[in-house]
Amino acid sequence: MARVLVGVKRVIDYAVKIRVKPDKSGVVTDGVKHSMNPFDEIAVEEAVRMKEKKIASEVIAVSCGPAQSQEVLRTALAMGVDKGIHVEVSGPEYETLQPIHVSKILAKIAQNEKIDVIIVGKQAIDDDCNQTAQMTAGVLDWPQGTFASKIEKGDKDITITREVDGGLEVIKCKLPAVLSADLRLNEPRYATLPNIMKAKKKPIQKLTPKDLGVDVSPRIKIISVEDPPTRQAGQIVPDVDNLISKLKEAGHC
Amino acid sequence: MLSRRFLSKLLSPNGAKNFKRSLAIGSKIPELTKDRYPVRRGEFAILNKEHLQFFTDLLGTQRVVTDPAECESYNIDWIRSVRGYSTCILKPKTTEEVSKILSFCNDHRIAVCPQGGNTGLVGGSVPVFDEVVLNTALMNQIYDINDTSGVLICQAGCVLENLDTALAERGLMMPLDLGAKGSCHLGGNVSTNAGGLRLLRYGNLHGSVLGLEAVKADGQIVDLLSTLKKDNTGFHLKHLFIGSEGALGIVTKIAIQCPAKPKAVNLAFLGLNSFENILKVLTQAKRDLGEVLASCEMIDESTLEVCTDNLKLKSPISNFPFYMLIETHGSNNEHDQEKLNGFLEDVMGNGLVLDGTVTNEPSKMKNIWDLRERITEGFIQDGYVFKYDVSLPIENFYSLVPEMRQRLANDEEVVRISGYGHLGDGNVHFQVSCRQFSQNILNKIEPFVYEFTSKLRGSISAEHGIGFRKPKYVHYSKSAESIVIMKQLKEMFDPNGILNPYKVIPN
Lengths: 253, 507
Ligand SMILES: Cc1cc2nc3c(=O)[nH]c(=O)nc-3n(C[C@H](O)[C@H](O)[C@H](O)COP(=O)(O)OP(=O)(O)OC[C@H]3O[C@@H](n4cnc5c(N)ncnc54)[C@H](O)[C@@H]3O)c2cc1C
Ligand SMILES: Cc1cc2nc3c(=O)[nH]c(=O)nc-3n(C[C@H](O)[C@H](O)[C@H](O)COP(=O)(O)OP(=O)(O)OC[C@H]3O[C@@H](n4cnc5c(N)ncnc54)[C@H](O)[C@@H]3O)c2cc1C
Hints:
The structure holds 2 protein chains of 2 kinds. The mean pLDDT of chain A is 94. Helix content of chain A is 28%, strand content 27%. By secondary structure, chain A is α/β, with parallel strands linked by helices. Chain A has one domain (2-225): HUPs (Rossmann fold, 3-Layer(aba) Sandwich). In chain B, helix 12 (275-289) runs antiparallel to helix 14. In chain B, strands 13-10-12-11-15-16-14 form a 7-stranded antiparallel sheet, with helices on both faces. Chain B has a 5-stranded antiparallel sheet with strand order 5-6-9-7-8. Chain B folds into 4 domains: 33-135, Uridine Diphospho-n-acetylenolpyruvylglucosamine Reductase, domain 2, CATH 3.30.43; 142-257, Uridine Diphospho-n-acetylenolpyruvylglucosamine Reductase, domain 3, CATH 3.30.465.10; 264-374, Alpha-Beta Plaits, CATH 3.30.70; 382-464, Alpha-Beta Plaits, CATH 3.30.70. By secondary structure, chain B is α+β, with helices and mostly antiparallel strands. Chain B is globular and about 70 Å long. Chain A binds chain B through residues 13-16, 18, 31, 33-35, 38, 123, 125-126, 128, 183, 187, 189-194, 196-197, 228, 238, and chain B through 1-4, 7-8, 10-12, 62, 263, 268-270, 314, 316-317, 344-345, 348, 353, 355-364, 366. Bound molecules: flavin-adenine dinucleotide (2 copies). One flavin-adenine dinucleotide binds at residues 78, 113-121, 124-125, 136, 156, 178-180, 184-185, 187-189, 191-192, 194-197, 245-246, 250-251, 376-377, 463-464, 467, 500 of chain B.
């Protein structure tokens, strides 16, 4: 049976309106509701299903971030993950934490925990990087199966159906491997009350990047964070003729 | 952030949207009200060229809709239970325009149907015959939001959800919330005295509406737009317009008291075995959650299926005979969570609640609320729905459902008999859905439902109003004397009876 590691990132909830800080150094996060990155929820669901099907022996979730990251770890535990690892990164260090750092952290933990399969979300909905799975595979020199919409584990290998432009691609790779979850992989469950209660007793191990020997010094500098341009107000035209002449005026036809 | 926008669509395809128009189009069109129901057109003028000329002179051609295809959606109600055949929809922008329209209609005996978001559930918001529709959609100005007092002043046609969004920017919230928020207008809410999902905590509109402006049938503008919390000068006339469903005048402006937007919101969705246990959990919720309790709703198994089967929404837990939604609003999440978790552990521990989930993530809360808020929409897919909205003593809250299941046990036309509603307020929504309208079923439900409710000293209309569907049943909940006074008031405010004829006031 496989040992599975999933990455869970705490992001601003997708139902919340994003606000840019007045000094343009980032987005407002104080007092803003966060939740688990939706693609990571899909990764957790997949790992928990593997455990339920007795394909996986243990599922460990990792979150890198400030103290509140433990909230998403608790959610993962309540969904059925066995153990959480919180790698504490906070303050300015967290603002410049990037997939390059996270992938090294995940790689190191994967080695320490003798992991066979790493599953992460295909991207986080805050920075939209879509790099962590690929970089982790690179650091570990493991095969990668990204944008998975179906995962079937064999004895020594794993078959992944990937969503690619214009269709699906089916690949098979050797274990250990790094996978990333796409939207249609599964529909994550809600954490139910009995499991939420049980999750309170499950362990969360606390680590720092230093414990893992990972250097998280910044590789980027944030110069400016800007709002997307506001959509110009529309105009109502009385009829089709008028519409066409307006479009012509504006050079659209 | 493309993916965020993409996600909110994909992960929550049921987001707040204006589904009103799309509903009327492309699905079955109800029979004309004049043909389905025994009702006679009043002695009102038939609209002629001169009348239309007056309207277009006043509003321009854009704001006078006469195209039959376009008129259709204004003639059919949201649940497609009634249909009028108005050929003229007016869209004023100002109180003065409303006043001129009414004064003209009053002089020429033209009947008028006031209409907001047209989400009303008792057939009040669409014409019965060919009444001119006065739609408030373009009366959508917000005049002021006062951060200190929390008072919002706006026009009657503002969409409830848009107001909530504008208030959120200022740390405030509308005191009411309902499933129709993406379409209904505040003027419509006030005119129906809408209750909704947080009435338990924030009270009803008779309390939160501080003042309003209305136009009487003769065009006279009545300025009652006080913004004061306390104003005991003379009679409290605003209350006459709250809940009078367009029978006494058209509400044009509203001042409403808005509470602070809660910093902490938590939502639990619970599965239970029996209605007795629901009552026990309600009692315990009031006791244990105290001042943070904001909503307490219940849904029975058959009702939830309209969401899971008809609308393909996902339930967080497996099937149970009953479900409850309990929401808390507070200012400190740690405090609220501690209370809520203690309560939940208790009701799980003593076996009252069998399963459930709890969350404070906005996206998950929204998905869970959809299971409650989209019920009305889900029922439409059953075919035709007979919908009742009654208040009953809390012990009898669910009694209509088993009673009616027995009564209609052998009727194959029936798809579903079920109940859900505002448990905390003792207000149950009871419905019988059929594949199509059936006079036979209707005869078996009415007046039985009303007699049953009246015997228990309940109300035959808890929050949806009387509209077209219920005037002849008002007497089940109101004394003869109070009906006489209602008629006298109508006579005084609208002597020619041009406002919402055939509705609200019993014959
Ligand atoms: C999905 C759904 C959920 C709902 N949930 C609830 C709920 O939880 N609680 C509840 O109480 N109701 C609920 N309702 C019904 C409720 O009455 C309406 O949604 C809402 O209050 C009506 O607002 P509206 O703007 O759509 O008014 P309309 O439907 O347009 O009109 C309703 C009545 O008011 C009159 N009217 C409208 N505007 C004015 C005005 N400016 N001046 C004078 N008269 C006017 C109309 O003539 C009509 O008689 C729900 C409806 C739907 C479709
Ligand atoms: C020390 C003191 C403190 C007060 N503090 C407040 C305060 O904090 N807030 C506040 O709002 N008021 C306050 N008041 C004034 C307040 O209006 C009265 O105290 C109280 O509400 C009146 O009740 P009452 O039974 O004494 O009525 P009365 O003084 O007897 O009557 C008041 C009016 O109501 C009419 N009335 C009385 N009973 C009836 C009835 N059954 N049906 C129809 N009409 C009736 C009377 O004709 C009269 O017009 C205070 C008064 C005092 C002396």
